Amino acid sequence: MSSLKNDRFLRALLREPVDMTPVWMMRQAGRYLPEYRATRSKAGSFMDLCMNPELACEVTLQPLDRFPLDAAILFSDILTIPDAMGLGLYFTEGEGPRFERPVQDEAAVAALGVPDPEQELGYVMDAVRTIRRELDGRVPLIGFSGSPWTLATYMVEGGGTKNFAQVKGMMFDRPDLMHQLLEKVSASVTSYLNAQIAAGAQAVMIFDTWGGVLSPADYRKFSLDYMKRIVDGLVRESEGRKVPVILFTKNGGQWLEQMAATGCDALGVDWTTDLADARVRVRDSVALQGNIDPCVLNASPERIRDEVAKVLASYGHGPGHVFNLGHGIHPNVNPEHAGVLVDAVHELSKAYHSPGVKGEKWGD
Amino acid sequence: MSSLKNDRFLRALLREPVDMTPVWMMRQAGRYLPEYRATRSKAGSFMDLCMNPELACEVTLQPLDRFPLDAAILFSDILTIPDAMGLGLYFTEGEGPRFERPVQDEAAVAALGVPDPEQELGYVMDAVRTIRRELDGRVPLIGFSGSPWTLATYMVEGGGTKNFAQVKGMMFDRPDLMHQLLEKVSASVTSYLNAQIAAGAQAVMIFDTWGGVLSPADYRKFSLDYMKRIVDGLVRESEGRKVPVILFTKNGGQWLEQMAATGCDALGVDWTTDLADARVRVRDSVALQGNIDPCVLNASPERIRDEVAKVLASYGHGPGHVFNLGHGIHPNVNPEHAGVLVDAVHELSKAYHSPGVKGEKWGD
Q1: What is this structure's pTM?
Q2: Contact A254 B251 (CB under 8 A)
Q3: Which ipTM score applies to this complex?
Q4: Which of A328, B175, B284, B338 is most enclosed, with most CB atoms within 10 A?
Q5: Catalytic residue among A154, A192, A219, A226, which?
Q6: Quick one: pLDDT band at residue B3, thresholds 50, 70, 90?
């Protein structure tokens, strides 16, 4: 493996000094980029794109060729795991992801196995290896997975849902069965992320998109506890460096203290929580990643810079901040606006870091 | 006006002693009730139902005939105000409410007037008067409005939205224009709620459905400040009693302290916040209304009782709790399950109130 030319992102996640705040954007490889749409139409379906390591690599690198981003993130989908478990993932226009065989009873839970990441999910590991080769050490590569609870919502509902009536129905009426399901999914996520790390992922992020629809007590029992199990089960070192783990519960701003106590290295924070408050609440025990409202990218360049300045000021001085959106970039964003944001983060953040500290690293 | 036979709800909102915890359910008059669906099909469109005071009264009273609820809530829609402002409200199947003439530029904001509640919104006041007459003092009647920010989201987007890109675009790029819009909407909401109180509403609730999509700083500036203006402008006494005001920001659990400081009497709380924590945070300065997950109603009766017990225990002893769902009841709920919830609240809550305290009141 070639040495890493820019390790600002990894250093910030470990709360080590950097020269400027690293930045990447959730869904940075996506529909707002015309070059993404071109590759996507070449690939066929969305899952065809995920399953083709060369094309997945191509779209992963596209935003890096446009913007001086400090990290790449594997192009994939959180539903690869349930698909590998045999649920039959497909996508419908307008309705989003669906499963042919939802998991709604004991027999269905019992029939689930833990996929072998190098077999059923080998296309993901191939994509990780291809991307690492093509990145050639420019920036670190982030691997990721959905959280067990988030994956379970899709598995039980058979797709996206507004009310979560079925998955919560199982949770309230059959907590034993829900725990069985979550245990299998957690084992699958752990082995999936460890395989990504073995294949070359240099940091991993767990996306808990739907933990925020639970009560505090149910969040602990049905989402957080399983994320903690995963954190405990991850191989945290690779290629001679620590592999940081980021937890992100959307709408989880009320639970940051508990999330920080899982042993993860960093928390994703959405824009409904002020980073200054978040930092006080977690007592600088973890790094924070976020948290500008993605809608800011619909505003003028001047306004984007103002809002970037506000987010940087809210985190304040010192290490431990990775700049990001509080949620994925919207498909209708002007790519030039994303560039304005990335440049503003680098330029305006220098004042928050001690002079002379280098984020760039030469040689190893 | 006849005297109020059951004032448990009003007493709890003012943190006065009661014999048991009062309960009502958001959207208690709604599609989960077959009798509602029958009236709805008789009325024509959804707005035809809202605009017909006799039928609006009929559906308002339906849940009270089934369950021993402690309050009635006016059957109406939050979008009556923008409709009265001339935006042309209509409903599409599957897509929800839409406006023919969204408000997206200076000219459109300048053209907006403040509706006269007894003229353009006279049908709402007629419904309030009709319901009060038919209620005949059984329980208090709640009036309501959407919050200015929430109404503005629909007015700018022209309907429901997933990303809030347009309304936030205006907020970020033209904060001056957004404030002009919010000022007009706030004036309209204030006069609308005061007219409901004059017509007979005995408590009012402001639904801030979309305040929770804002950052803390933007929430204060663009949602909370305008709700405070409304609270300041309301006539707070009628028929010789105080008219309590309830604020409810969905996903606003992080901001309860600031909401309590507006001068309102009670806060609606969704299920992502523990009532014990909420009570400590607001220091018992306001009553709390909530907060069971509406999905609990999809579980078995035994489980519903367990979850009711948990919510009652989380609030704990003493006055100041109004039991409610944390969001509107879902259309697919079995009405018998709603009855189980209401009965469980009354039965299980007696232990949390001092013996001998009466919520029923005879005479005046």
Answers
A1: 0.94
A2: no
A3: 0.92
A4: B338
A5: A154
A6: confident
